[in-house]
Write a structure and sequence with these properties.
This protein is an alpha+beta fold and 191 residues long. The protein is built from five helices and five strands, in the order αβαββαββαα.
Length: 191
């Protein structure tokens, strides 16, 4: 009995082996602890990679089309389904998802366990519509450029659809000479 009494009395004057929590500061988590998820919607590019790699499917995305053509995109992360594997954070190319050292994930209602963020994806600007006059002008410029190129290169302009191209006798002789020169060069390489 005496050893127990002496042990009890010595323990009265020792520092406690436990921490005074919740009365004091919460203890720090271990290094690289994977706690509550943090989502920064300003960095998100809506690639959806986090949703594809999430094994328990704890991530949902809601897309609402706005009147001006923009999209309001909301990502929601359900901490009750999350396994804290960090795969979503690893695959996030913009590092919009990180796991914090917050291990005190407590709440009184289901919404306390949801982490969500919303951002607006702007619609692309509308393409300008060309008038028939602008289209006709562009076609005329293209035809004039083709004719100028053909005149400068000595090649006859392309014949309209359904007609055979017409070559001058000089052009035909030049084409034959070029073909014979190619044949002679090929024969020299083989021999």
């Amino acid at each position: 009995m005496l050893p127990y009494v002496t042990k009890a009395l010595s323990n009265l004057f020792k520092k406690p082996s436990t921490e005074a929590f919740p009365a004091g500061e919460p203890p720090k988590a271990a290094p690289h602890y994977r706690g509550r998820l943090h989502y920064d919607p300003t960095l998100c590019i809506n690639c959806g990679m986090c949703m594809r790699v999430c094994a328990p499917q704890a991530i949902t995305r809601e897309i609402v089309k706005l009147e001006n053509g923009d999209q309001q995109i909301t990502f929601t992360y359900d901490m009750t389904s999350c396994t804290f594997c960090n795969t979503c954070s690893d695959f996030c190319s913009k590092k919009a998802i990180t796991l914090t050292e917050d291990y005190m994930i407590v709440g009184t209602k289901p919404e306390d366990f949801l982490v969500s963020g919303t951002f607006i994806k702007k619609a692309p600007p509308p393409k300008p519509k060309l008038t028939p006059e602008q289209i006709a002008e562009m076609k005329e410029k293209a035809e004039a450029a083709k004719a100028a190129k053909a005149a400068a290169g000595g090649v006859a302009p392309a014949a309209p659809a359904g007609e055979k191209p017409k070559f001058t006798p000089e052009q035909i002789a030049e084409m034959k000479a070029a073909a014979e020169a190619k044949k002679a060069a090929a024969a020299k390489q083989e021999g």
